């Protein structure tokens, strides 16, 4: 019976050790296998991002009348960007469509539109970069077709696993990308986020867009450079529109979700990038508190999905760590059972010895035989 129980114990110990090895290997490989599968932008993704603030706008009517101060200052502004996933999509790519409108918040709804566009770009669902050679498009007028625009940077989101390093961020106004430098980590409502800052310009918008509206010739007096009575008041001067922006982005790193943003931008006409001959507009906008809250909720949800987290109150226990704990427990149990089995067999072996555990030389028959020979 001891032999049978010892064999069963050895088998159980071997199975436990084998199970432990399996669990530990799976725990090590699980992130490598699941992350590429889970770190994909869901095809049902959608978001609405509202920014509010104020700015200064050039009043073209006042400028035409020769007003010395043709600007409206401290204008309340509101921008809304609605981002959805549209066809075509695949297991690796998704097409994002962003409908954007910048409006005066002090005007009758629908009558204070400053600018609007519909932007489409196909991105890699993991790293958020434009997908392959796929062209993106921009439509700024309902009566005109969209124009094709190549992209070379992230735009509406960051990669999954955003690192503390610079990323190229595409600016639609400049039609170009520039580096958004990593500033540092901080917290928003208990969520660790990464702060990136992009500074761009002055950008020559005529060269960027080839739109004739961005290079204008007017008289010196028309530009407000001299009085109408000046001798050179009628001289034609060409000026180009320039654009500058500082953009701050706060990103939840696991999901790549932009949870907060601030944009300080300006445009002006000048004979060169250093000559601000005629300011056109400037604004300072930031995500509303409601938008920040909504984006944080979306980031938390996507972060937990990607991390295979099991909610345990304020604590998240990750699947890989569960497997590590189970694997170590199985290993400890297997080793303990194996050691106990070995000790049991040693004791049982000693009890089954025919000699009773005594030295054979002490047997009386042996001693008598040895004495007779002596």
From TrEMBL:
UniProt keywords, alphabetically: Membrane, Transmembrane, Transmembrane helix
Chain spans, region Disordered: 345-374
Keyword Transmembrane included in the entry's annotation: yes
A Pfam family per the record: PorA
Transmembrane region(s): 319-339
InterPro entries referenced in this protein's UniProt entry, alphabetically: PorA (IPR021424)
Compositionally biased residues, Low complexity: 348-358
Protein name stated in the entry: DUF3068 domain-containing protein
């Amino acid at each position: 019976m001891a032999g049978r129980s010892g064999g069963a114990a050895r088998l159980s110990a071997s199975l436990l050790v084998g199970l432990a090895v399996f669990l530990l290997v799976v725990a090590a490989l699980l992130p490598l296998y699941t992350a590429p599968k889970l770190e994909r932008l869901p095809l049902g993704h959608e978001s609405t991002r509202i920014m509010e603030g104020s700015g200064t706008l050039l009043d073209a009517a006042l400028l035409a009348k020769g007003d010395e101060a043709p600007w409206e200052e401290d204008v309340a502004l509101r921008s809304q960007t609605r981002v959805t996933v549209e066809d075509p999509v695949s297991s690796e790519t998704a097409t994002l469509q962003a409908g954007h409108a910048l409006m005066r918040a002090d005007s009758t709804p629908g009558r204070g539109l400053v600018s609007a566009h519909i932007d489409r770009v196909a991105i890699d669902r993991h790293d958020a970069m434009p997908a392959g050679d796929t062209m993106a498009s921009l439509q700024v007028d309902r009566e005109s077709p969209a124009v094709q625009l190549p992209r070379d940077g992230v735009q509406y989101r960051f990669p999954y696993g955003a690192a503390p390093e610079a990323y190229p961020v595409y600016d639609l106004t400049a039609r170009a990308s520039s580096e958004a430098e990593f500033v540092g980590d901080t917290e928003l409502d208990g969520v660790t986020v990464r702060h990136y800052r992009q500074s761009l310009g002055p950008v020559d918008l005529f060269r960027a867009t080839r739109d004739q509206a961005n290079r204008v010739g007017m008289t010196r007096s028309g530009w407000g450079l001299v009085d109408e009575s000046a001798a050179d008041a009628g001289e034609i001067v060409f000026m180009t529109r320039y654009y500058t922006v500082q953009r701050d982005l706060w990103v939840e790193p696991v999901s790549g979700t932009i949870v907060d943003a601030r944009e300080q931008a300006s445009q002006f006409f000048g004979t060169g990038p250093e000559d601000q001959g005629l300011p056109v507009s400037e604004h300072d906008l930031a995500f509303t508190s409601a938008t920040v809250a909504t984006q944080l909720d979306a980031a938390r949800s996507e972060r937990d999905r990607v991390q295979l987290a099991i909610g345990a109150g304020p604590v998240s226990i990750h699947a890989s760590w569960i497997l590590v704990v189970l694997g170590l427990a199985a290993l400890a149990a297997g080793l303990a059972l194996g050691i106990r089995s070995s000790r049991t067999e040693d004791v049982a072996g000693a009890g089954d010895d025919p000699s009773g555990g005594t030295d054979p030389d002490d047997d009386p028959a042996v001693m008598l035989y040895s004495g007779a020979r002596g």
